[in-house]
Amino acid sequence: MSNRFNDNWKSQTRLVHGGTLRSAFGETSEALFLTQGFVYDSAEAAEARFKGEEPGFIYSRYANPTVDMFEQRMCALEGAEDARATASGMAAVSAALMCSLKAGDHVIGARALFGSCRWLIETLMPRYGIETTLVDGADLEAWERAIRPNTRLFFLESPTNPTLEVCDIAAVAALANSIGARLVVDNVFATPLLQKPLELGAHVVVYSATKHIDGQGRCLGGVVLSDKEWIDENLHDYFRHTGPSLSPFNAWTLLKGLETLPLRVRQQMESAARVADYLAEHPKVARVIYPGRKDHPQADIVARQMKGGSTLISVDLKGGKEAAFAFSSALDIVGISNNLGDAKSLITHPATTTHKNLSEEARAEAGIFGGTLRLSIGLEDADDLLEDIDQALRKV
Ligand SMILES: *Cc1c(COP(=O)(O)O)cnc(C)c1O
Questions:
Q1: Position 16 pLDDT exceeds 80
Q2: Higher pLDDT among residues 354 and 313, named by residue
Q3: What percent of the chain has pLDDT over 90?
Q4: Atom of ligand 1 at shortest distance to CA of 222?
């Protein structure tokens, strides 16, 4: 087995070759090691491997060569020392948050979170005696005011779902450092290409690989990345013994996804910028939030911490829910789906789907109204998408 890695490789090269474990057959594509376990040459060899005296795989819940390739390639992309791949994005978020916490600790989260992430913080953690506070992530003083003597962890998403607001990651990381807490960033909406939370000072990064990393609507996956010490001390045992492990088959699919990630994200972002500009000028549109536009509420932070505007657009239609429903249902190419980051363009109405469990008050606080839609731009020709959006808006 040889592990292909070179520190001098640029990002695109790492995404094609990084972490490849080539077997004795010299295969071109990454091998799919669809196996639960591994056999040892002798009882002595098994003993040595369990003692950690000899390298090698033991059981696919702990580690697997195909999953290992995916983890190593993600490390090379993210600039992280170590990673653990998980069966879904939520397995990554819950492992990253729970593995270092105990009863009596305090967590501060930015309020605008993916629904399941918010449930973890608001509902699950308090059941285990973990205190939690949700704040407006864009308000630095709110983070500071929420700090308690037992605050151990900060958690945020940026850009947020579904309104695409942006938090100042470097400033929140500095605040966490000042009290010895750790900052975990869910970087799904930015993708690993447009924002590097570890470089900005965050301690842990999590992804739902289900989104842009697969990007072709096939399988669920996730990954947690950090420095080796944090993973060894917090995640290593938690991961082995709770078993959120990624299937080798899905790891193989995600590895193939990484090869084309920059091409897809660049193309989808280019089209998203055009669609956002088109929507912003339309008389039936009340407001567009797109991180690539100068009128984004935190345009200065976007310029500092992101390399592009993302592949997602948040749009508010005049006429509330009725207009939003009429528009979505009239779309032909763009599908109605709560997924995102896919090659196929997708639209969702957060108030009645992903964020239906929030009270109307909490939704308003998060900037989600009856007319709010989240649009994920895919790989279709942008002219076709604009035509589809235009004909659907005419039916509103
Ligand atoms: C989708 C998503 C998740 C959860 O990922 P799954 O793969 O669906 O479990 C978490 N955070 C964000 C921001 C997401 O978009």
A1: yes
A2: 313
A3: 93
A4: 7
Q: End-to-end alpha-carbon separation of the chain, Å?
A: 59
How many A from CA of 211 to the centre of ligand 1? Answer: 8
Q: How far is the CA of 206 from the centre of ligand 1 (A)?
A: 9
Question: What is the CA(23)–ligand 1 centre distance, in A?
Answer: 33
Q: Quick one: pLDDT at residue 1?
A: 53
Cβ burial, residue 261 (10 Å; 0-12/13-18/19+): buried
Pocket lining: 161 vs ligand 1, CB cutoff 6 Å: yes
CA 101, CA 319: separation in Å to the nearest integer?
Answer: 45
| Structure confidence by residue, pLDDT tens digits, 95-148 | 999 999 999 999 999 998 888 999 999 999 999 999 999 999 999 999 999 999
Nearest CA to ligand 1 atom 7: 89
Our answer on whether the CB atom of 110 is closer than 6 Å to any ligand 1 atom is no
Please enumerate in sequence order all residues whose Cβ is within 8 A of that of 103, keeping only pairs 6 or more positions apart, or say none: 128, 129, 130
Contact predicate 120/186, CB 8 Å: no
Domain ranges of the chain: 11-259, 261-394
Kindly tell me if the per-residue pLDDT of 4 is higher than 70: no
As beta bridge partners, residue 346 has: 335, 376
Q: Is 157 in the pocket of ligand 1 (CB under 6 A)?
A: yes
The preferred substitution site among 121, 156, 188, 218 for testing ligand 1, maximizing ligand atoms within 8 Å of CB, is 188
CB of 246 within 6 A of ligand 1: the answer is no
CATH code of the domain made up of 261-394: 3.90.1150.10
- Return mean pLDDT, the chain: 96
Rounded to whole angstroms, how far apart are CA atoms 131 and 316?
35
Q: What average pLDDT score do residues 336-354 get?
A: 96
Fold of 11-259: Aspartate Aminotransferase; domain 2 (3.40.640)
User: What is the spatial distance between Cα 316 and Cα 330, in angstroms, rounded to a whole number?
Assistant: 16
pLDDT digits (tens, 9 = 90+) for 51-63: 999 999 999 999 9
pLDDT tens sequence across 282-300: 999 999 999 999 999 999 9
Q: Which residue has the higher pLDDT, 9 or 217?
A: 217
Q: Is the CB of 341 under 6 A from ligand 1?
A: no
